[in-house]
Amino acid sequence: MGVYVGDELFYKGVEISMQDALWGLCTLFVLLTFSLLLRRYALRWVFGVLLFLFCFFGGLSCMMHQLQETTVAFADKETIYRVCITEKPLVKEKSMLCTAELDGKNILLYLTKDSLSQRLRSGDELLINSRLSVPAGYGNPDEFDYPRYLLRRRISGVGFCSSDDWKLLAHHRPLSLSQRALVWRERVLGLYRELGFRGDELAVLSALTVGYKEELSEEIRESYSISGASHVLALSGLHIGFLYALLLFCLRIYPDKWWGARLCRCLIILTLLWAFAFFTGLSPSVVRSVLMCSLLVVSSVWGRESFSINTLTVAAFFMLLCRPAWLFDVGFQLSFCAVAAILLLQPDIYKILSPTHRMVRPVWTLLSVSLAAQIGTAPLVMLYFGRFSAHFLLTNLLVIVLVSVIMYGAIAMLLLTPFVLLQGWMAWLVKILLQWLNAVVRWVEQLPLASIDQLWIYPFEVFLFYVLICLGRHCVSSHRAKSLVACLCCSLFLLGGHAFMRFQDRPVQSLSFYNVRGCPAVHCVAVDGRSWLVYADSLPDEKRLHRVASRHWQRQRLLQPRAVTADYQDSTLCFRDRILSYSGRRVCMVNDDRWKYQSASQPLAVDYLYVCKGYNGRLHTLAALFSFSTIILDASLPSYQQDAFKEECLERGYHFIALSEKGSMRFLL
Predict the structure, then answer these.
(1) Which helix or strand (DSSP H or E) is residue 101 part of?
(2) Distance in angstroms (rounded) separating the CA atoms of residues 552 and 395
């Protein structure tokens, strides 16, 4: 809770100095120690309160310290910097994305894609001439908060360099341990390519074994998402469990009855597990899984080998102590909720049938684990992705078996590197298994009602969902009427809150202008959920606009918007000669010079003058043709042109709105 509050306070402009935070934590620690030494049972609540406050302010201080350390004030103009690339550059459509280090801070650097930038590697030092800045939010409703996401990932700024604005100074500066791990990962990926893995097979194998997901295409990601198998593409407890089981099998020669043998086995397993976690880039899900396995292995030395909620809590505590921003990582949240649900719910679900047949028992165990994990992660999946996979039980039953065989086959393939012929045969077998895996996922994707899309739930509903799950489990285990009443009250509160929020977010007759660079459009919304997207360009970038605003449309329960790119008229809307008429309002969309040399005996009355990229005249020319109340400057306009238009508006007294500064605007009708 302290991490969350610290994040919110920072973005509201509240700052706490580290000196004050340390004094407060020291005071709480002294009081905590004193209350512990009292050893009075009647005052046990004092110790609990002080422990909660200590953890709360500790999380708050760590989170605010990380955000304050990441925030940097860059120069407002182009400046020369010396940077070092820390990760392998990623190939984008028109640029190369490099993660670089600048004076101990991390930045994202976009370089023009050419033959020189494509040869850059981790460890290269560059001299760049760029204007670095922290990207500002666009102000569109329900849009992904990219600046906040970058700060949580310790990215201080973003910059762009053309081909003439950077120079290579040195190749491969001495690498850090994490950079060396990424280099070794690249070598493994290169070996996969040499063995003939291509396309989706290479992408899935890279994700399953070393956690590299950049090769995954949008099509294969969507297939795994719809079928409910996305979790196998993210290294987590499932993959670490397979590796842990393999290590236990290989080290079974150590007898359990000798303490020294158990200790030796523990050290070997810990070394290999953390080497694997380091090798995959120390992602939150892998660290969580390896940390839990480590606690399990250490406890096995003393003959106590079991997972528990306490083990999970300890793992979360140490992870957040090192990286408090991991709390906001979607993979971290899904991973912990899945494991917690398995620990709490799977035993009760398994007891529903309790099969005795030795062939049925492992199948039901797998299904009960999958069902518990799905219950634990479904609220978060609906919150972040707006989707629920209906055939997840069938998918997991088929996919997990294939994934386990593929992982063991991949390990054998890597171990057979000195034996080229045997390695080639094993690579052929792994390739066949990957084809089967992808075929199964695509088959489930094509089944009727494979997924329920366009779902929208609110964050408070997610919290109530988890409260309801905990109350339901307590009700089943205690068989008390009070627990049942609490479950019913929570359910009613959840349904009532959802109905109220849905009423608040009902469609309203309105006109909306979005802050989307390169795609000027007016969104006309009707109260029955119908809407029209009237584009200024005949060939608009619809994907960009949908990517930005689709979540907002989903929250309002709008139907699929109808695209209008040419003259159009129906009983509700009229768009002719770039003039939009809707619900008694008029919008003139100015994106070319058709009005530049026109004249009128009497100005045409319009409500909004929507000026977009393509108009090269002056605003007073338009004022002679139109009588308007507001000028809306679209984000597609170049910055120099926006500045000129804003200056003219101030001189002549025109009321204007610059979408690049104000963000999305909605006018109720």
Answers:
(1) strand 95-102
(2) 31
Tens of pLDDT, residue by residue over 121-161, are 877 888 888 888 887 778 888 888 888 888 888 888 888 88
630, two tokens? 């507001």
Strand ranges, E, within 449-497: 451-452
469's CB contacts (< 8 A; 6+ apart) are 341, 345, 375, 376
Cα distances (Å, whole numbers) of residue 569 to 355, 572, 582, 608:
65, 8, 10, 19
The packing angle between helices 237-250 and 284-301, to 10°, is 40
As a whole number of angstroms, the distance between CA 159 and CA 135 comes to: 9
d(CA 245, CA 241): 6
What sign does the dihedral 198-200-203-207 (CA atoms) show? negative
> Is 101:84 a contact under the CB 8 Å cutoff?
yes
Q: Encode pLDDT of 492-514 as tens digits.
A: 998 998 889 888 888 999 999 99
Calculate mean pLDDT across residues 407-425. 85
Which range has the top average pLDDT, 33-37, 126-130, 180-184, 290-294? Answer: 126-130
Residue identified by tokens 């600048």 is 102
Distance in angstroms (rounded) separating the CA atoms of residues 339 and 211: 19
Q: Under a CB-based contact definition with an 8 Å cutoff, are residues 460 and 396 in contact?
A: no
Residue-by-residue DSSP string for 391-460: THHHHHHHHHHHHHHHHHHHHHHHHTTT-HHHHHHHHHHHHHHHHHHHHHHHHHHTSTT-EE-S----HH
**3-state DSSP call for residue 642?**
helix
Global pTM value = 0.82
Contacts 24+ apart (CB under 8 A), 487-490: 490/464
Residue 253: the pLDDT is 67
Q: What's the confidence (pLDDT) of residue 302?
A: 66
Q: How far apart are CA 626 and CA 1, in angstroms?
A: 55
Looking at the DSSP bridge assignments, the partners of residue 631 are 609, 656
